[in-house]
Amino acid sequence: MSDILIITSYFPPETGAASNRIFHLANGLEQHHFNVSVITPLPNYPKGKIFDAYKGKFRHTSTENNIKIHRLWIYASNSKNKILRLFAMLSYSFSLIWFFISNKIPNKVIVQSPPLLVAFTCMFFLRRKKRKLILNVSDLWPIAGLELGAFKKNFSYRILERIEYFNYKKADLVLGQSNEILKHVMSLCPSKNVFLYRNFPDFNPPTIEEAVSNEKIKVVYAGLLGIAQGIYKLCEHLDYSNIEFHIYGAGAEKEKIEAFISKNPNLPITYHGEISRELLHKELLKYDLTIIPLLNRIYGSVPSKIFEYARLGLPMVYFGGGEGETVIKSYNLGWAAESSNYKDLNSVLNKIKKEDLTITSKTIIQKTALQHFNFNKQLNELIVIV
């Protein structure tokens, strides 16, 4: 049985794509007879506060599903203040360094990136000839930060670029969730070993159900209500003549969205709050269509929702451009609207009819997902090279 350590900034009971992705990876490796351990901060995402069950703890170690989980101290914060956010990342890095010094580290380590600084800490302190460092890149930073408007091309940005290059250079293998990520890594480190590791889900596919009959198409968004997703702006710009809009999740824009709904009671928008992933899957089956938006096109980004919703048999309207749009079109998973073009988005939505959203069409989408977005097949291919 081979020992392997996964270092991540997100892990259950935290919710979200990053947490689910690493959980499935850890669980999959354990089922393939790896002795898996995980290092992660004390749970705090997305609210930026330590969960009640872990408050007052400096460190918590437990064994769950035969996986040993080390939860380390972090200064939890989701503040918009850049200094506080930087300190939060550095606090976790300090906890990691302390852990590395006082514990034996396996010779196979998977490091999640971003955050860049956390990944840098791992790549710097864990490098040694006998150890294999595997960098799992889910988003391209600092490029994504630049496209989101969080960074400017200045001295600080150039430092982040050097950190990014260092991380790629020191990795023995780079996993990327998109072809754009792998292309970028290869542009910086041409001889680097890379592997396309999509964020495929691993759950039993449900039986497709007919959505509750309604004159309007029931459109749903479920996920993080953050700035990058732009759900508040979506509420402002949607044409509701053909649709009703349902929202699930939590995040920075939650209060703004609730206030908008309160001020516009005539609009068919319903906010359902945040619910567990298992319950959400059941709820999503009630809807005709889901929308996957990004406020701005982000190079390298392919939202994991695409693969999760396809497994549920839920048709999609993709509104983010890039490789995600290519996946939607290539596998006939729904429709795509031009990124950031709300006029085009409304045009696409107005052309969709109830007869386009039948059980038959949903079943075809689910079958496509089961054939092409296979978690276990992908994991088996990864294990060969790990």
- State the low-pLDDT regions, or none: none
CATH superfamily of the largest domain: Glycogen Phosphorylase B
**Percentage of β-strand residues:** 15-25%
By DSSP, the count of extended strands is: 14
Order of helical and strand elements: EHEEEHEHEHHEHEEHEHEHEHEHEHHH
Domain Glycosyltransferase subfamily 4-like N-terminal: 17-184
Transmembrane segments: 83-103, 109-126
InterPro entries: Glyco_trans_1, Glyco_trans_4-like_N, Glycosyltransferase_grp1
Protein name: Glycosyltransferase family 4 protein
Task: Give an overview of the whole structure.
- Residues 17-184 form the Glycosyltransferase subfamily 4-like N-terminal domain.
- The chain crosses the membrane at residues 83-103, 109-126.
- This is Glycosyltransferase family 4 protein.
- InterPro entries: Glyco_trans_1 (IPR001296), Glyco_trans_4-like_N (IPR028098), Glycosyltransferase_grp1 (IPR050194).
- Residues 214-359 form the Glycosyl transferase family domain.
- By secondary structure, the protein is of the alpha/beta class.
- The protein folds into two domains: 2-201 and 374-385, Glycogen Phosphorylase B (Rossmann fold), CATH 3.40.50; 217-372, Rossmann fold (3-Layer(aba) Sandwich), CATH 3.40.50.
- It has 14 helices and 14 strands.
- It has helices spanning 17-31, 82-102, 116-125, 143-147, 155-170, 179-188, 231-237, 254-263, 277-284, 305-312, 322-330, 342-351, 359-372, 375-385, and strands at 2-7, 34-41, 59-64, 67-72, 108-113, 132-137, 173-176, 194-196, 217-222, 243-248, 269-271, 289-293, 316-319, 334-336.
- α2 runs parallel beside α3 (116-125) and α7 packs parallel to α8 (254-263).
